[in-house]
Design a protein that fits this description.
The protein is an alpha+beta fold and 268 residues long. It has 2 domains: 123 residues, N-terminal domain of MutM-like DNA repair proteins; 120 residues, Helicase, Ruva Protein, domain 3, CATH 1.10.8. 27% of the residues lie in helices and 23% in strands. Strand 7 and strand 8 form a beta hairpin. It is elongated.
DNA sequence: CACGAGACCTGTTCGC
DNA sequence: TGCGAACAGGTCTCGT
């Protein structure tokens, strides 16, 4: 579920409930959820540290502790909950931190794709990420230049976290639609004006997602409502809100891809 | 370098 | 109603 706006929403919600609390004990329910280090070292090292700050980098949650960084990626179905008061174990809980003041941080993840790291240096995990799309290094000029240097299809390139970090399947489809660019267009054929449109669209769509507290779909509900404002994502067979044409659904890089065949024309 | 397929997982929804 | 197939917010690895 979580792309940049959803992870940002989670970080904002967790911050007031967790910052300042101490970690009493870690409990790992599904072994593979822990990416680094070993379970024994993890449990030993994390105990007694205090939660200093919670932030986001791309789709990662970064929890700064007294001496280490706890980094979490929710992948497809992960969710993080701060439970104040009695904690009752639930079916898909994979990892639990018992905190001071009767608080529990629960990592709930039905599909078990999510991962957790405990590291001294966050770059060990975050070092290969591209620029933050809502950050100052992401400019129209940077985007144009870097699109020229590749010859990839736009959609898979924008999903490549080493190229730009934080965009996922929903927001890429929405961004390309807003910029009126076809998902299969070659990146090196994007004009300077089109790159500027794409730059603007990516930021607008992500900002709207954050403003609406992210998108909540299916059984993973977190209170966001961006799902009620999708223009193309998940709307194959329905009409384009801009021109009324029927939205098409294709597969690109094994991902469902939604676009308007009239607004987003593939020139060749 | 670019791309497709397969893995990793469980749950829901759809078609017959 | 039952049952298999398709599909789901992500990313990694391997072969071509």
């Amino acid at each position: 579920m979580p792309e940049l706006p959803e992870v940002e929403t989670i970080a904002r919600n967790l911050r007031p409930a967790l910052v300042g609390k101490a970690i009493l004990e870690a409990d790992l329910c599904w072994k593979r959820t822990l990416a680094k280090p070993s379970a024994a070292k993890f449990k030993r090292d994390i105990r007694g540290q205090e939660i200093r700050e919670i932030s986001r980098r791309a789709k990662f949650l970064v929890i700064q502790l007294s001496t280490d960084f706890l980094i979490i990626h929710l992948r497809m179905s992960g969710d993080l909950l701060a439970i104040i008061g009695g904690y009752a174990p639930a079916k898909h809980d994979r990892f639990i931190l018992k905190l001071s003041e009767d608080t529990t941080l629960v990592f709930h993840d039905p599909r078990k794709f999510g991962r957790v790291w405990l590291v001294k240096n966050p770059d060990e995990v975050l070092g290969n990420l591209g620029p933050e799309p809502l950050g100052s290094d992401f400019s129209a000029g940077w985007l144009y230049e870097n699109l020229q240097r590749r010859k990839r299809q736009l959609k898979p390139l924008l999903l490549d976290q080493a190229f730009i970090a934080g965009i996922g399947n929903i927001y890429v489809d929405e961004s390309l639609h807003m910029a009126k660019l076809h998902p299969l267009m070659r990146s090196n054929r994007v004009s300077e004006a089109q790159a500027e449109d794409l730059w603007r669209a990516v930021q607008a769509v992500l900002e709207e997602g954050i403003r609406r507290n992210g998108a909540s779909i299916d059984w993973v509900y977190r209170g966001g409502d961006f799902q009620n404002h999708f223009r193309v994502y998940g709307r194959g067979g329905k009409t384009c809100p801009v021109c009324g044409t029927i939205i098409d659904r294709i597969t690109v890089g094994q991902r469902g891809t939604h676009f308007c065949p009239a607004c987003q024309v593939l020139e060749r």
